[in-house]
Design goal:
The chain is an all-alpha fold and 144 residues long. Helices cover 74% and strands 0% of the residues. It folds into 2 domains: 89 residues, no CATH class; 55 residues. The longest helix is centred in the N-terminal third of the chain and has 26 residues.
């Protein structure tokens, strides 16, 4: 149950963050806004680290495979693409497409056992669930 609550909170925070970042970009530029987002996230993480686990940063050198360290780089492009999609499509449509894309890619990662994730068998119900989500986007977009 806790996992469900955290996932719902994450989705809500991502939507609010996307709107905030889009508005900041209007007053600055894409890369200034993106830099602020990443810098402020670093500051919060360092404060949280200081008051909680205090694990050594040297552990980062032990991470294998090394491409797993690209999460921050991907994060910069996530911020960029969320800002661009929200400014082009609006928050609701943008988030719906982002979520369906996340769902599809996450399922493919599980299905093929990519990036060290345990491989899962194909299930029709999951494919049908994604189709229902895609139908929801079409219904949401449908103008009468």
């Amino acid at each position: 149950m806790v996992g469900i609550f955290i996932a719902l909170l994450s989705g809500a925070l991502m939507s609010v963050q996307g709107v905030f970042n889009t508005e900041v970009t209007k007053g600055t530029s894409m890369w200034v806004s993106n830099s602020w987002v990443q810098f402020s996230a670093l500051a919060v993480c360092l404060v949280a680290w200081f008051f909680t686990d205090r694990a050594s940063f040297a552990g980062i050198l032990e991470v294998q495979p090394k491409y797993m360290l690209l999460g921050g780089v991907i994060g910069a492009f996530i911020t960029y693409t969320v800002i661009k999609s929200m400014s082009a499509l609006g928050p609701a449509q943008s988030v719906m497409l982002i979520v369906v894309s996340q769902l599809l890619v996450a399922y493919l990662i599980e299905l093929f056992g990519m990036f060290g994730v345990d491989k899962q068998p194909f299930e029709w119900r999951k494919l049908i669930g994604m189709a229902v989500c895609a139908a929801g986007i079409i219904l949401f977009k449908w103008e009468s």
